[in-house]
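Example 3.
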Amino acid sequence: MSVTLPSLQRARPAPLRAQADWDALAKAGNRRRAIGQGLLMAFLVTVSVPILLPYFWMFTISVSARTGGVDSAVLWRSIGILVPAVLALGFLNLLTDRGMRRLYGAAGIVLIAGTALAWAIGPDLHLQNWAFLRDANFVENLSGRGAGTVEAQFPSVWTAFGNSLLLAGVQTFLVLSVATLAGYYLSRFNFQGRASFLQALLILHAFPAMTLIIPIFLLMHWTGLLDTLTGVILVIATLELPFAVFIMKGFFDAVPWDIEMQAIVDGASRRQAFAQVVFPQVKVGLLAVGVFSFIRGWEEYVFVRTLLFDKQNWTMSLYIFWVSEDIMGVDYGVVAAVGVFYVVPSILLYVFCQKYLVQMSLGGIKG
Amino acid sequence: MARIELEQVAKSWGDVVAVEPTDLVIEDGEFVAILGPSGCGKSTTLFMLAGIYAPTGGEIRFDGHLVNRVEARDRNVGIVFQSYALYPHMTVAKNIRFPLKFKGVPADEAARRVSEAARLVHVEELLDRLPAEMSGGQQQRVALARALVKEPQLLLLDEPLSNLDATLRLTMRAEIRRLQRRLGVTTILVTHDQIEATTMADRVVCMSKGRIEQIGTADDLYQRPNKLFVASFIGAPPINLLDGRAERGTVRVGELTLPASGIEGAVVLGIRPEHLGLSAPGHGLAGRILTVEPLGRETLYEVATPLGSLRVLEAGSERRWREGDASGVTVPDEALLIFDKASERRLETASLALAEAA
């Protein structure tokens, strides 16, 4: 300090530049901002391409592939039309700022791109790959390719869809109810072994569940839950819980004590204060944990593969596995169609909950 | 409305003592402020009254009834927190109505009381807003309305003005005072701000380290502090404290000798800044002005003297001294506070009595 202090005192502000320079400085600032924005856009576009492309490809295959072959022509042609269209929309956004003009421009671009698409790939599109939605025995009915397969080899896709929905939904419900109560208790009450309990939660989460697969199999066998959805639901919920409890505890920690004490002085019981005052503050956390554990149940593969055998118990992940496995020579069109069907609920869930999931990082309570 | 009695009430968390056994009586309709630095146990005392903390010893009585075991929800107490603690997901109307929910008040009666409470604190126009959409002052008023809507027998205010800006604090101070007078509700204000305490309350309870140091009116605490802590905590700018020795009818502080009979031993001399004066060099203590702080109506000088640096408050905005000037500091014979150094209690001296008589 004794060294820096005198030098600070000696330092004088650099003389301001002449007045005329301000315009130039403003221009330079604008230029730098424009370049920065451009670079950022370029970076984001580059990063999103490998994320978006596979989904798009899967979709184009599902609506264009014919019996077995994979044809990338449709992909390239549609990209050739869609990329310029997206770029044009971007420029439109940069160049116009008035609502109506922007709307008309966008409508024009969409119309042109739509016409071009219809002309370029329209004739290649068909829905044959989606036959599995209607017909459980679609493999046998695919002309000439069902030879050698047994009737009723697959359950209806809706059975698998229902099973997945049940698995993910019930699992999420279990996780949410237990994690909310446990998180509240861990956040608000002191008890013997609280610290070690919290540490144990983290260790449990760090433990790779895969190593438990044989003991879990035996456990399911002995309890008679093998080959039942109940068993899988219990296993997955249990494995999900430690982390969910930890996250919920964090959300409860962010709720100030003041409003809880206020509620109690205002005449509420501890339980009423929880239900009417504290609980509404952690809804965002609940939603986030809910979305993640639903997705976890929806995408579950390892445990359903191990613990479920009967095809009436198949979930979507097993269905897509057997579809890709059992058709003589992989039918990419059908696999892609089932894939799209499988992924749409997840995407919808994310789209609708995105707003709240982003809030999750901000945490708890505002105002 | 209630008369509140605390008898040997204490609170500790394991080995940590938050409040030592404390006696305090608050009369029906009285406005009492508990004043002290943070960590002195004032909020803990408040929470024990509210029923949020259970005391580890002693008895709390409302109108003579023991309430130690009565739950917070049944005590009919209104509270306003420093953070206002409004329920973020409820509109103002729902916030104010919340306490009535648990009392079985019929709907039309509840609606009437909500709008009455809202009118009392001037938030009728805000009933549909959410707390996040209001300013700090508005939130404060809503919190007050919510505390008053159930017609509590005791109103507790925990640093209610600390989060407001200076002007608003002034308005709210007067408003809360007026409201309290009008409703006649027994009120306890907890604050670390002495001006808040002395301007709003009938009596001030000064606390430090879990103990009540002194109870009295604002004048009592300022002019006749019982303890060194009270003298140093109350008064802005703070009092000058000087170590000295009392012997043979005088108090000696460095070169300074003041008459003070009847006391012996090590003492601490307290002189309020406004009782010191600046004079031409050569009069009184030799001093040099270190800093000049214009306060508007007054000017505060920090003056280096052989006794250490002293704060001197001069009336008037006109400033006769600048930093670096040499000056004298005159010390009065009266208006001195003398404390025993060991026990930190104030000592009554004959000289003070004499000075008052003259």
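Chain B has nine helices and 20 strands. Confidence is low (pLDDT under 50) at residues 351-358 of chain B.
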